[in-house]
Description:
26% of the residues lie in helices and 18% in strands. It is α/β, with parallel strands linked by helices. The protein has a 5-stranded parallel sheet with strand order 5-4-3-6-7. Strands 1-2 form a two-stranded antiparallel sheet.
Amino acid sequence: QSSSSSSSSSSSPYGLVVMEGPAIALPSVLATSDEESSINRKFYGGKGDKAHLGGFTSFDPMGVSPTLWAHMVSHLGIKSLLDIGCGRGISTSWFITHGLEYVACAEGSHDAVTQSIIPKIENVPEGTKYDIIEHDFSRGPWWPSRTVDAVWCVEVKAILFIQNSHQYITPHSHSSLLLDIVLECHVNTHTHMFRFSIYITLLTLIYSSNIVHRACRT
C-alpha cells in the first residue's frame, strides 16, 4: 500500500529516493485477542499492539540524554527534530520544552500514543510547533511534512525487520543530521553493521567522527 497517492519523488545518482508531497501515516493494525494472549510483554507496555512493535517503557533511562540533547541544541544549532520511535514522548517533550521551532514524534505503538505525555505539556514555548504521528513502518514508508535539522531514534533498528529497512529510511532523507542509537546488547552485531551500511549507502551520509566523539563525551 502506498503511503501517498499524491506524492512525487526525486532521486540522486546514488539511488536515494527523496519523497516529496504529503505522506499518509499508516497506524498499526491491532492484535487479535489470541495474538495478545500469546505475547509475553514482561515489563513493556504495548497492550493491544502486535508483537513486532516491540513495546515501550514508561521511562527508559538508557534513552534519556539531556546533556547530549543540550549539545545538539546549543552547539549543533538544532532547531527542528523528528523523534522516531518516541514511545510516550519523553525525549520529544524535552525538545518541545527547550524551544525548538518544530518537533515531531513518530511512534508505531497505538498503546504508547494513547499514553503520550506530549498533549499534557504545559507552557509550550511561543513559536514551538509539534506533531504526534502514529505510523507502523512495517506497513509502508512515511516522511515528515517538512524537512528537519535532525532525526533522533533510539532502539528502533533493534526491533526492525530488515525487509522494512527501506521504509524506515524514508524520513531520514528529510533530515540533515541522523543520531541513531542502538544498544548493542539487543542487536546482532553483523545485522547492525549490515543495516548501518545500508543507511550510509542509501542516504549518502557523511560520517562525522568529531560529532560522534563529542556526543560520547556528553
